[in-house]
Amino acid sequence: MKNVYDIFEERGFIEQVSDENMLRQLLAKPISCYIGFDPTAKSLHVGSLLPIMSLAHMQRQGHRPIIVVGGGTSLVGDPSGKDEIRPVMKREEIDSNAEGIKRQLSQFIDFTNGKALMLNNADWLTPLKYIDFLRDIGRHFSVNRMLAAESYRQRLESGLSFLEFNYMLLQAYDFLHLFKNYKCLLQMGGNDQWGNILAGVELTRRIERKTIHALTFPLITTADGYKMGKTHRGAIWLDPELTSPYEYYQYWVNIDDRDVRRFLSYFTFLPMQKIEGLSQLKGDDLRKAKDVLAYEATKICHGQDAADKARAAARHLFGQKTIEDIEAIPTYCITSDDLGEGIEAYILFKDTDLCATRGEARRLISQGGAYVNGKRIPSFETKVGPDDVQNNTILLRAGKKKYLKVCIQDS
Fold first, then answer.
1. Rounded-to-integer distance, Cα 13 and Cα 7, Å
2. What is the pTM (predicted TM-score) of this model?
3. Is 226 contained in some domain?
4. Residues 100, 145: one domain?
5. What percent of the chain has pLDDT over 90?
6. CATH number, position 373
7. 349 plus 314 within the same structural domain
8. Which contacts (CB < 8 Å, 24+ apart) does range 132-140 have?
9. Does 115 share its domain with 154?
10. Do 29 and 137 lie in a common domain?
C-alpha cells in the first residue's frame, strides 16, 4: 500500500510539516490522526474540503481518522484569521451543528466499526477546573511566544480578548488528550493553524516526553484570488439543503481554467496519471476536464445518483436548451396568485436569487444576459406571466450557465 505522505506530496496537500522524515516513516504503518472542525454553522462548506479529503486519503491507506468537533473551543472562539471576536454560541446549537457535520462527513469517511471516530472536545474541556488547568497546562506556555504567533499578532491592533487568548492552550490540550486516550500521533489542519498545532506537539513533548507530529495544508484561493468556495450568492455548502447537488456541480464546472489541475488533484480520487492527461486539454476541450471534476466532486459529496442527475441536467440545458422536468435543477415555487398577470423580470430575478439585487438584475437584463424559456428578455420592465408557463414551469437563465425553474403551484 502506498505511503499516504507520498500521496499528499504529489497532490500538493503539504504546506508545512514538523519533521518530514520521521512522519514519512511513521505513516508506513497505521496510525490515528485528527483534524478539528468548527461547529459554528450547521454545515461545512467547500473551504473545508481539503482537510476532509486528507482524512479520506488517510483512511484509504489504512489509518484511522479522528474528527474533533470543537464544541468546547467554540465556546471560546478561534481568533485565527478573524478581524473581531466571534459571538459565543450556546451548547445546544453547537451540538445540533455537530450532528449535521457528521452526516456530511459520512459521505467522505467510513465511521462504521471504529474505522473513524467523531469526538466533541466539550466532553473533556468543559469539566476542566480552571486552577488545575492553569497549574498543569498553562505553566508550559510562554506569553511572549504566544503573542508572536500569527493568529494572535494580527488581532492585537483590533483587540484580542483574554477569552480568545486561551484558545491555543485549549487546542494544545486537545492534542495531548487525544495522544493519551486514543494514541493519536498526528494533527493536520490549514496553515493558519500551524502555531496552534505546534503548541500541542510541544505540550505533549514536555508532559509525556513523546514526539507527535504536525502537518498543515495550503490555504486555498482560486486563480483569480478569491477565497475558496465563495460566490456572489455566498458559500458553497456541503449540505444539499443549503447548496443543491446541481448548484454544487455547477460550481465546479465553472471554475477558472487555471485551477483545473490543482482542483482535480485536491478534490477527486482520480489517479494522478489521469489528472495529468486531463490537464493537458486546451481550449474548448478543457470543458471535458471540468465536467470530470464536477462529476467526481459531486459524486464524493452527494453520491453517484445525485451526480448523475446533476450531470444529466447540465448536459440537457447546455445542449438542447428546452424545458423538461429535470429534478436536479434548483426550483423556486410560487402560486398562480403570486404570478398573477405577471411579475417584472428584474423583480423575479432578484426574488429567485439569480441576482443579488434588483439593480444587478436590471443591468443583467439591459445587457442581454437574461432569458425566459430560452428567449432573451428585451427589457427589465418585461413581465414574466401566465403565457410563459409550460407544464407548470418557467425556466429562467442568468448569463450562460445559471438556470432556475420557477414552479407554479395552484393557489
1. 8
2. 0.77
3. no
4. yes
5. 45
6. 3.10.290.10
7. no
8. 133/169, 133/173, 137/169, 137/172, 137/173, 137/203, 138/169, 140/202, 140/203, 140/206, 140/207
9. yes
10. yes
CA angle 88, 92, 98 (to 5 degrees): 90
CA–CA separation, 25 and 27 (whole Å): 5
The conformation of residue 409, written as its DSSP 8-state character, comes to E
What's the pLDDT tens digit per position in 30-46? Answer: 999 999 998 888 899 99
Same domain, 60 and 83: yes
Tell me the pLDDT tens digit for each residue of 236-278.
999 999 999 999 998 999 899 999 999 999 999 999 999 999 9
Rounded to an integer, the average pLDDT of 372-393 is 84
Q: What mean pLDDT value characterizes the chain?
A: 86
State whether residue 90 is helix, strand or coil.
Answer: coil
The answer on 207 and 140 residing in a single domain is yes
Best CA proximity match to 36, nearest among 220, 152, 178 = 178
Position 371 pLDDT exceeds 50 = yes
**Does one domain contain both 262 and 402?**
no
Last residue of a domain, one of 217, 234, 260: 217
CA atoms within 13 A on the CB side of 384: 32
What is the predicted pLDDT for the residue at 273?
94
Check: CB of residue 278 under 8 Å from CB of residue 257: no
List the beta strands (DSSP E) in 21-113.
32-37, 64-69
**Enclosing H/E stretch for 360:** helix 358-366
Instruction: List the grid coordinates of 49.
Output: 474540503
Task: Look up the CATH number of the domain holding residue 117.
Answer: 3.40.50.620
User: Is position 118 within any domain?
Assistant: yes
Q: Residue 402 is part of which domain span?
A: 331-409
